[in-house]
Amino acid sequence: MNHLLETAEKIRTMEIRGAGRIATSAAFALREYAETLKAESMEQFDSMIADAANILIDTRPTAVSLPNAVRLTTKYTASTVEDARQEIINNASRFIKQADEALEKIGTIGARRIHEGDLIMTHCNSHAALSVITTAFEQGKNISVIATETRPRKQGLLTIKHLNDFGIPTTLIVDSAARYFMKYVDNVIVGADAIAVNGALVNKIGTSQLALAAHEARVNFLAAAETYKFSPNTILGELIKIEERSIDEVIEPRELENLQNVIVKNPAFDITPPEYIDLIITDGGALPPGMAYTVIKEHLGWELKDLV
Ligand code: RUB
After folding, report:
1. Structural domains in the chain (count)
2. Which of 4, 247, 280, 295 could anchor a disulfide with 264, C-beta 3.0 to 4.6 Å?
3. pLDDT band at 300, cuts 50/70/90?
4. Do residues 195 and 277 share a domain?
5. Is-contact 54 3, C-beta < 8 A?
6. Do residues 247 and 149 both lie within one domain?
7. Cα of 195 from ligand 1 centre, angstroms
8. Distance 127 CA to ligand 1 centre (A)
9. What CATH code is carried by the domain that includes residue 230?
């Protein structure tokens, strides 16, 4: 349980972050937990796995990759502890392998949308979006990138480091400069924490402003999202919960002293409507947002009857 609790804490504090990493680290933690847990009966095993699953799911509310990974990993049909344990181990290994392959497929598919000389704008730090950018660059396309700083946690600094290591010419800008530079941009590419059944994209706060500016400037707006980031529960009409993080990420508490009329808000994600999204690059293909239901049904294998 120790490793699982440690993973949960790292996800909560964002030492492990980004929807993809969150999902695979949860699968790793569940695999290790299943390998070592001691249960006297199937009932005890069921309840220990359910508790572990809830501990992980409760860490961050927005990235749908997390409950999807946990659900895919902890789905077992076996009726003995040993068989169920093995099923979980196999599920987790399969999920981790497929998540890795998905990133590669997204890179290959997405790179076809990137052309020689393109200037790409990205936001936050998305491994899926970076996979598209670095794959295009490694194919010999002469591209450059504008990366937003991404306040308040400055994940843009992780992005510029990653791009720099690949040798990709990169410009760092503050978030509020996005529209100023948009007229020079050929493609905006961002990642996803979740995709709803209507094709709406949930991603790092500020994404929807980029989408709006791209729409106004007639710039392509692409989201890169593994199929396990699509949200089955939105079929039931559930809304994706937007995480509100501590205001300490935005301002030092002492700077607020004596400002009795001021409150601070820190939503971590926002929602980009499907009308502003040209394509979602998934491991199942480059799809228009309107195909979200098909992805949930065919790639995740979940239909209404499994959910209600
Ligand atoms: C990260 C974020 C990323 C998506 C996709 O938010 O919004 O764009 O999670 O990332 P946070 P990836 O830093 O708050 O976790 O493509 O790596 O899964």
Report:
1. 2
2. 247
3. confident
4. yes
5. no
6. yes
7. 13
8. 8
9. 3.40.50.10470
By percentage, how much of the chain surpasses pLDDT 90? 96
Count how many Cα atoms sit within 13 Å of the Cα of residue 185 in the half-sphere of its side chain: 30
Place of tokens 């659900």: 71
Look up residue 283 and give its two tokens.
């491991």
Residue nearest to atom 12 of ligand 1 (CA): 126
Cα–Cα distance between 59 and 200 in angstroms, integer?
A: 23
Q: How far apart are CA 188 and CA 114, in angstroms?
A: 10
- Give the confidence band of 301 by pLDDT, cuts at 50, 70, 90: confident
**Residues known to be catalytic:** 124, 193
Boundary-marking domain end, from 105, 131, 153: 105
User: Is residue 146 located within the same domain as residue 209?
Assistant: yes
Taking only the tens place, the pLDDT of each residue in 22-52 is 999 999 999 999 999 999 999 999 999 999 9
User: Residue 17 Cα, ligand 1 centroid: separation in angstroms?
Assistant: 7
pLDDT tens digits for range 68-87: 999 999 999 999 999 999 99
Tokens standing for residue 24: 């695979």
> 107: Cβ below 6 Å to ligand 1?
no
Both 162 and 93 in one domain: the answer is no
Domain check: are 93 and 194 in the same one? no
- Considering the domain architecture, whether residues 94 and 180 belong to the same structural domain is answered as no
Structural domain boundaries, residue 89:
2-105
- Please identify, by atom number, the ligand 1 atom nearest to the C-alpha of residue 124: 8
Residue that is last in its domain, among 78, 105, 132: 105
Q: What is the CATH number of the domain that holds 88?
A: 1.20.120.420
How far apart CA 297 and CA 137 sit, in angstroms, is 33
- pLDDT given for residue 222 in this prediction: 98
Which DSSP string do the residues of 111-156 spell out, in sequence order? HTT--TT-EEEE-S--HHHHHHHHHHHHTT---EEEEE--TTTTTH
Least Cα distance to 19 among 79, 106, 85 occurs for 106
